[in-house]
């Protein structure tokens, strides 16, 4: 998901949602929206329950948030790579701040270069898709890669 006016992935007042192995790049392009790449929230006592966000790459728009999380219950948030902003929710637990090293984001090529910190950074003890966006089997190597592509 990239360059959308709204959030990359938006979970609002929803339960039992798993957001796994996505590559989100500089979404929230609208000047009115500054909530980042992946958002999970509710309002007041209307909470989003049993939602999970892991094995994703969140590449923030410059000067904007990585993500937004609030009014959640039983929320899992781990093994994500984020970059280009240190503003967001639960960044101490979200995962690792590091350049994911895309091949060429300006042409929409979000495969990972050799040596990317997203390689083998995912978690395979939770549900994950057994094929990547190319249809190649995953995981390869020691662990699942973060994002939509399994490189090694
Ligand atoms: Ca914006
Ligand atoms: Ca791997």
Task: Note poorly predicted spans.
Answer: none
Bound molecules: calcium ion
Shape: globular
> Termini separation (Å)?
22 Å
Q: Give the strand tally.
A: 14
Helix content: under 10%
- Counting DSSP H or I runs of 4 or more residues, the number of helices is 1
Provide an overview of this structure:
By secondary structure, the chain is mainly beta. It has a domain at 9-100. Helices cover 3% and strands 30% of the residues. The protein contains 1 helix and 14 strands, in the order E-E-E-E-E-E-E-E-E-E-E-H-E-E-E. The protein has one helix at 91-94; strands spanning 9-12, 18-20, 23-25, 38-41, 48-49, 52-54, 57-59, 67-70, 72-73, 76-78, 80-83, 95-97, 102-104, 109-112. The strands form 5 sheets. It has a 4-stranded parallel sheet with strand order 3-7-11-12. A 3-stranded parallel sheet has the order 1-4-8, with no helix packed on it. A 3-stranded parallel sheet has the order 2-6-10, with no helix packed on it. Bound molecules: calcium ion (2 copies). One calcium ion binds at residues 28-31, 33-34, 61, 64.
Blueprint of the fold:
Layout lengths: L8 E4 L5 E3 L2 E3 L12 E4 L6 E2 L2 E3 L2 E3 L7 E4 L1 E2 L2 E3 L1 E4 L7 H4 E3 L4 E3 L4 E4 L40
The structure holds calcium ion (2 copies).
One calcium ion binds next to loops.
